[in-house]
C-alpha cells in the first residue's frame, strides 16, 4: 500500500501514479490498454483489480485541506 500525506505528498503521488499507470499500460480510467503480457505480470504490486476490469491504485491519500485533492 502506498501512503501519500499532505499537499506535497499528494502532488508527488499523483505524478507517481501517472507514471506507474503508463508503465503498466493503463489508460486514465484504469483500464488495461497495453500490448505486453509483462505489463500484466506484476500489476498486483501497485493495483487491485476492481469490477469492470478496471485497476485501482493500492494507496491511501491523506490531507486535512479539502481543496488539495480537487486539482
TrEMBL record:
GO cellular component, one term: microtubule
Name of the protein: Beta-tubulin
Top-rank lineage group of the source organism: Eukaryota
Swiss-Prot/TrEMBL GO biological process terms: microtubule-based process
Organism: Calonectria pentaseptata
Domain Tubulin/FtsZ GTPase: 2-69
Gene: tub2
This protein's UniProt keywords: GTP-binding, Microtubule, Nucleotide-binding
Pfam family, one: Tubulin
UniProt GO MF annotations: GTP binding
Protein's UniProt keywords contain Hydrolase: no
InterPro entries referenced in this protein's UniProt entry, alphabetically: Tubulin, Tubulin/FtsZ_GTPase_sf, Tubulin_FtsZ_GTPase
Protein family (similarity comment): Belongs to the tubulin family.
Amino acid at each position: 500500500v502506498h501512503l501519500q500525506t499532505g499537499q506535497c505528498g499528494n502532488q508527488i503521488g499523483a505524478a507517481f501514479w501517472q507514471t506507474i499507470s503508463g508503465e503498466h499500460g493503463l489508460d486514465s480510467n484504469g483500464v488495461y490498454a497495453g500490448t505486453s503480457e509483462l505489463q500484466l505480470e506484476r500489476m498486483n504490486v501497485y493495483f487491485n483489480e476492481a469490477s469492470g476490469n478496471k485497476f485501482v491504485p493500492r494507496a491511501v491519500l491523506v490531507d486535512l485541506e479539502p481543496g488539495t485533492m480537487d486539482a
